[in-house]
Amino acid sequence: xxxxxxxxxxxxxxxxxxxxxxxxxxxxxxxxxxxxxxxxxxxxxxxxxxxxxxxxxxxxxxxxxxxxxxxxxxxxxxxxxxxxxxxxxxxxxxxxxxxxxxxxxxxxxxxxxxxxxxxxxxxxxxxxxxxxxxxxxxxxxxxxxxxxxxxxxxxxxxxxxxxx
Length: 164
What we know:
Layout: H1 7-23, H2 26-30, H3 38-56, H4 62-83, H5 88-113, H6 120-127, H7 137-156
């Protein structure tokens, strides 16, 4: 409460806010088939957070920025869980599960985007649909195209413009 915030914490919090807004873009739910429910929204947020964390790690102070982003994200998720009525004793357990889920998804997305053995479309089908992947291949293809464009956009964005 009385401690001074590090500059990267404020920057990371503003980037997190922008990332959370991007993860709720109607196109993701309407055209790309992500379910508009608690699970689908978390999967969308995880996808966007994983891409942003990878982008932040490219900065000279990237590890500190990525950690500050992660911390801002999970402070927000903790607050959200409490607001929707999760009991205090259950919040920590759920946060742990969410953090593990983000980590696993981030590794899978990173590997697929780097040309790993599992195609990005398959990784998205397994991880981005709240446990209910669409039947239609074109729906997953729309999400894959979006993810590739967004990752390229993040890579081309200057550090100072990431929160805009």
